[in-house]
Recover the amino acids of this structure.
């Protein structure tokens, strides 16, 4: 089965850090560009970050640049998001999403999400 | 900065046609995609590259993009289509989502 499964969410204090993981299965992970997208409670979707297949190209949203780091391990079929200097406004469900190979700049597969709560 | 504007809500009667718009500067020169999100679920791709439909998505979903506005059209709307819908386009190397539209089927 083709799927993405996020983990690592939880409660963090403002200024703290957290590392999210996304395990891919059922497809050739190393052939796909990947993204993180988040959704604050009751709010819309917000793109967070992008990484190319061989992690040579990386982009971030302005809201997280300098605080978040995206990475991947193709040998482990895994995507990561290391979050530092967390703020209350970073509280959200974080989804990993696959960019389609023939659907350029389109998210054709999403995980179920992992909830991050930043609170003192 | 580049922004995409969607109406917060759209209502439609079962069996009728629903249209959800997404407006942005020079959007017709970018590819738009659309995502359906039912309550408590992850988003699902329903339209990509303005007009294309993934194979698992019903034919009643269609898309268009012209004159700064992308439009998602759902023909013969069913109760199970009730969900939030988000448009997406790219501005340089940044993905931008619209604010989302809650589709109510009454």
């Amino acid at each position: 089965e083709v799927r993405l499964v996020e983990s690592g969410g939880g409660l963090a204090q403002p200024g703290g850090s957290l590392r999210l993981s996304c395990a891919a299965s059922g497809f050739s992970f190393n052939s796909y560009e990947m993204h993180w997208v988040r959704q604050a409670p009751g709010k819309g979707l917000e793109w967070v970050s992008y990484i190319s297949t061989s992690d040579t190209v990386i982009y971030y949203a302005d809201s997280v640049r300098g605080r978040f780091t995206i990475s991947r391990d193709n040998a482990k079929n895994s995507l990561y998001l290391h979050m530092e200097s967390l703020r209350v406004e970073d509280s959200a469900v974080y989804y990993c999403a696959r960019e389609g190979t023939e659907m350029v700049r389109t998210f054709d597969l999403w995980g179920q999400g992992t909830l991050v709560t930043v609170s003192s | 900065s580049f922004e995409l504007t969607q109406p917060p809500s759209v209502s439609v009667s079962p069996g009728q046609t629903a249209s959800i718009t997404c407006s942005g500067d020079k959007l017709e020169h970018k590819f738009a995609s659309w995502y359906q999100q039912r309550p408590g679920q992850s988003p699902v791709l329903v339209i990509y590259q303005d007009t294309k439909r993934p194979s698992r998505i019903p034919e009643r979903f269609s898309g268009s993009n012209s004159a700064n506005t992308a439009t998602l059209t759902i023909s013969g709307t069913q109760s199970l289509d009730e969900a939030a819908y988000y448009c997406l386009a790219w501005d340089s190397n940044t993905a931008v989502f619209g604010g989302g539209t809650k589709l109510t089927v009454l």
Observations:
- Chain B has a mean pLDDT of 96.
- The interface with chain A takes residues 31, 33, 35, 37, 42-45, 48-49, 52, 54, 84, 86, 88, 90, 93-100 of chain B (CB under 8 Å).
- Chain B is about 0% helix and 45% strand.
